[in-house]
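Quick one: structure tokens for this chain, please?
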Amino acid sequence: MQLTPEVKAQLAEQKKDCVFCKIIKKEIQSKIVYEDEKTLGVLDIYPAVKGHTLYMLKEHYPIMPYLPVEDFTHLFGLLPQLTKAVKGAMVAIALNIFIANGGAAGQQYPHFLIHLMPRDEGDGFFQFLFNRKEKKLAEDKVKQLQMTLAQIMQNYFLSSPQEWHSGAGGRPSYLQGIESRGLVLYEDEKVLCLLPSLNIAAGQMELYSKLEERYIEKLAIWDAVYLFTVGSFCASLLFQVAGAQGTNLLVKSGISDDNRDGRLCVYILPRAQNDSLQGLHWQPEQPKYNLDGVQDKIKEKMWNVKFRMDMAVEKKAVEKTIARSSDVVKKEPEFLSSKDEILRAIQRMQGK
């Protein structure tokens, strides 16, 4: 989204007291494991699991909708490589990616960041173990969700045609029969979005890759960017349709105690203040092990992580994707306190 001078001024003031901006400027000491010209990765000093890494842009943006095209592409395009490095360092078999947009979703500081959490069976971390129930949206809201998402994607492909897209495409074997688990809201050659019948919140969506069954680190740069771009479209709709005050994007990748089939899935969760999903949030605790040793192991695996801009045509298509994704969720900088701008942006996407 294009930031107005007024918004930029407000962000500049917010930035002065931002803990993570001070970490980025090295005013506060941190355990750095990765750094490039745009992004920084540091160990969480109160880790939920061993190897818990915080990954962020160096520039200050409070929530995902504020990320400019180039920064969004860089940040999410590097996730597969970063995931591989963190998992390798911790000799982990799985990993979670956790994003909180807004205070209602558990975001504690207004600097957008991504949690990378390596997982193993029996690691004792059960915050993401879902107790699914049948929590339904009203039928008219379900139809609105499906129709609006279809319109947004149709408008996107009309405005930025991509050679690979011609329709819904086929389904890999691991997604065959998935419609028995809920309603398919959207599908193309690369992703499938499901509204499951059993969920943990009315309006919860599940986004699956058609290119990779289990491991996010196996996705190419552009496919990872596209997956999270569609995820951002879906998350934006939860404000309009489900009345969300915040959103979580949770990725489960590989076999863990809370992901027994090992399936790669992006869970998109609507959140409200003091809702029933408080169990997703872990309590900060000092680790009982030496963080310096963990830092050294992860840094050693990060040496080859690099964003490679070697496909100019595809880069241009991705930039258009992210530009439209940003338009969907343009809003005032009250830390997700108002829905008006989101609703107007969605209406623009629908051509209204």
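The longest strand covers residues 94-101.
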